[in-house]
Amino acid sequence: MRVLLVGAGGYFGRELSRGLDKDFDLLLGHRKADPAEARSVQLDITCLDTVVAAFRGVDAVVHLAIAPGHEGDYEDDAFNQLRFDVNVKGTWNVVEAARRSGVRRLVYTSSLMVVWDYPPSEWVAGDAAPRPGGTYALTKRLGEAICEHYTRAHGLSTVCLRIPKPIALDDPHWKQHPIRPQWLAFPDLVQAYRLALTAPDIGFEIVTVVGESSRRRWDLTKAERVLGYRPTIRLEDLGYRLGDEREPFEAPD
C-alpha cells in the first residue's frame, strides 16, 4: 500500500514514518521537498493544486500537518489566524484532494483536546460528543466535521484519531519531568496508525487512542472494537512520573 504522510517533516511525522516504514510504501509530504530524500514530496496544504498533485497514485493518506510554532492551548490572534488557514482550510484541501484522487483510506489526526472540557471526574467515551478546549481544539473539531461530511457525501473511508501527546522512549527529558496520564509512547501510537490504515469495513469513525495508566479515564473500547488497538506500554511502569492531566508541561528544547 502506498501511503502519503502529510506533514512528515515535523517531530511527530519523523517518528511515525520510522515506525510505519517496514509495513508501507511511504511518501513523505513536506512544505519544502528534501532533495536528499527520494520519498520526499512537495506539498503545501494551504494550496489545493499542490495537494492534488502529491496525491496521484496514492492508496492512503495520513494527515498530520498542523499550524507550526506552538503546541496545545496557546492563544494569540495572529497564530489563531494561521491555525484556521492550516488546520481547517488545509484539512479541506487534503480531503478534497483525496476525493479527486480516489484515495481509499484517510487517517485524520485529531486531538484529545476536542473533548478537553469534560470535567476530570467524568469517564469519556471513545467517540464522545465534542467539547473543545480552546482554539486549537476547535480547529481540530472542524477538521473532524469536514472528514465526516466528505465520507457521507463522497464515500471516503476515514478514521479520525483523537490522540494525546506522544513521547519517544529514548528522549530523557520526560524521565525528569511529570507527564500527563493520557500520554502514550510512540510504539503504541504507531500501532494505532498502522491499524487505522488497514482496518476493514471503515466508513467514518472517530476513535480515541491514549496510553494505559492507573489514571486513565478515556474509554478505549471503541479503539479495540474498530481497530483492534490495545496499548502495550504503561509509561508509569517504566519510571515516568504521572502529573495532573492538565498540568502545564515543559517541552524539550
Characterize the structure shown.
- The protein is α/β, with parallel strands linked by helices and 253 residues long.
- The chain has a single domain, classed as Rossmann fold.
- It has helices at residues 11-20, 48-54, 77-101, 135-154, 186-198, 221-227; strands spanning 2-6, 25-30, 40-42, 60-63, 105-111, 158-163, 166-167, 184-185, 204-208.
- The strands form two sheets. Strands 3-2-1-4-5-6-9 form a seven-stranded parallel beta sheet, sandwiched between helices.
- Helix 1 (11-20) packs across helix 5 (186-198), helix 2 (48-54) packs across helix 3 (77-101) and helix 3 (77-101) packs parallel to helix 4 (135-154).
- It starts with a strand and ends in a 26-residue tail after the last helix.
- The model has no long low-confidence stretch (mean pLDDT 93).
